[in-house]
Amino acid sequence: MSRSTERDARPDGSPRRQLHLTEVETLRAMAHPLRMRIIGSLRVDGPATSAMLARRLDTDSGQTSHHLRLLARYGFVVEAPELGKGRHGRERWWKSATDSTQWSDDLDSLGAGGPEAIRALEQAAHRVWDSLVDTYRDQVARGEWSAAWREAAGGGDAVVRLTPERLVAMQEEIQQVIERHNLKDHPADDAETVVVVLQAYPRRAPQ
Questions:
Q1: How far apart are CA 4 and CA 25, in angstroms?
Q2: Largest alpha-carbon pair distance within the chain?
Q3: For the chain, how far is it from start to end, CA to CA, in angstroms?
């Protein structure tokens, strides 16, 4: 099954620009938490220079510059010269090349190194998701979120019996619900960016 960092269509129904990872080398290129966070920030927060990304992600511009060059090599990001040269007249602006990234668990097509590349990529994604939750919890401890948001936020799990086909159908329906509630193109005064992480894996009891 393919994995995606975002939905396949915009709220208005128009198609998103997708990057399909079909080679081990590109999977490895994305399998880094900071590179994932850079791509995510460029998609969600908009184009930026390496210095701006460093401030957004609480790192240094040397690291963001290094990772931006690598991401550009594999087609994840592109330069945005139309935005100028940055605050200091010499910085380059960058933007995401696509709206979403997809990869497949089809190990036969990936060949040698495929299982390790998929595992590294998904481990990096889990680290990014965990860091988002940690950041939110730190902000709650500092009193930065209202009681309404604290009540609304959270996670959970459920154990169900499904076939592969029904699992695909369930995930598609969940994605439709997410898009139906998305206010991305319909601004609301009290709306905030919300990260929804969907995970569904089969489980076998230990023998």
A1: 18
A2: 64
A3: 26
Burial of 61 (0-12, 13-18, 19+ CB in 10 A): middle
Q: Which residues is 18 bridged to in the sheet?
A: 100
CA 117, CA 137: separation in Å to the nearest integer? Answer: 31
Instruction: Provide the CA 137 distance to its chain's centre, in angstroms.
Output: 19
In order of their start, the domains of the chain are 2-156 (1.10.10.10)
Kindly state the DSSP code that residue 15 receives in the 8-state scheme: B
Query: pLDDT for 135-148, tens place per residue?
Result: 999 999 999 999 99
Confidence of residue 16 (pLDDT cuts 50, 70, 90): low
For residue range 39-98, list pLDDT tens digits in order: 999 999 999 999 999 999 999 999 999 999 999 999 999 999 888 775 666 778 999 999
Q: How many residues does the chain have?
A: 207
Structure tokens at 185: 């193109």
* CB neighbour class for 71 (10 Å; exposed up to 12, middle 13-18, buried from 19): buried
Can you give the pTM of this predicted structure?
Answer: 0.80
Q: What are phi and psi of 103, to 5 degrees?
A: -145, 165
